[in-house]
Amino acid sequence: MFSVTGIVGTGAPATARTVVIWVVTSGSPDYIYKYGEGGSSGAQFVVSFAAVPPPAAINAYGVGIGIVAVLPPGVNVPTDGMVSDSVIDNAGYTTDHGIIYKAPGASNVVPWIGPFPEGYSCGVCVRASSGFDSFQPTTCSTVEVDMTPMNACNWT
Question: b/e per residue, 131-148, with b = 16+ CB within 10 A?
Fold first, then answer.
């Protein structure tokens, strides 16, 4: 099992459902896949995974990027599977952090994946002055959900 405990920024609800949305961009069309969940209490969240992400949550080159989302009350999300982008409407989510999954034998299609270990880890966004942003390894305790998300890391 892999768990991430992190911070929920200003405006955090007293309690909320927390899910992980995996961004899959290696096909057409791009989609998001819900896998992993937990909860938040005040300024802290936790999410956990019982196993590796399903193949549908991982890009074709063997890399998965998960975004932690704190859902508003009343938003229902399926247990696991493809979901609409509207799932994160009005949600807080990680804009500068991601949960990174690197499959055994993953390709270096995204050059920044090299320093990440196989399996689960966490990354922090490195903003590019031009082109796409990237991630670099960070400790999972630094992952933060922004309750008024803007300007998310653009790694694709």
Answer: eeebbeebebeebbbbee
pTM of the model as a whole: 0.93
Domain that holds residue 91: 2-145
Q: What's the distance, CA 150 to chain centroid? A: 15
Strand partners, 24: 31
29 upstream amide cis, omega within 30 of 0: yes
| Residue 152 placed within a domain | no
Secondary structure letter of residue 50 according to DSSP: S
Rg of the chain, C-alpha, whole Å? 14
Total count of domains within the chain: 1
Residue pLDDT tens, the chain, 156 long: 899 999 998 888 888 999 999 999 998 899 999 999 999 998 999 999 999 999 999 999 999 999 999 998 888 887 899 998 888 888 999 999 999 999 999 998 889 999 999 999 999 999 999 999 999 999 999 999 999 888 899 988
In a domain, 155, yes or no: no
The label of the residue with tokens 């975004």 reads 67
Is residue 85 situated within a structural domain?
yes
The candidate with the shortest Cα–Cα distance to 132, out of 113, 145, 116, 107, is 113
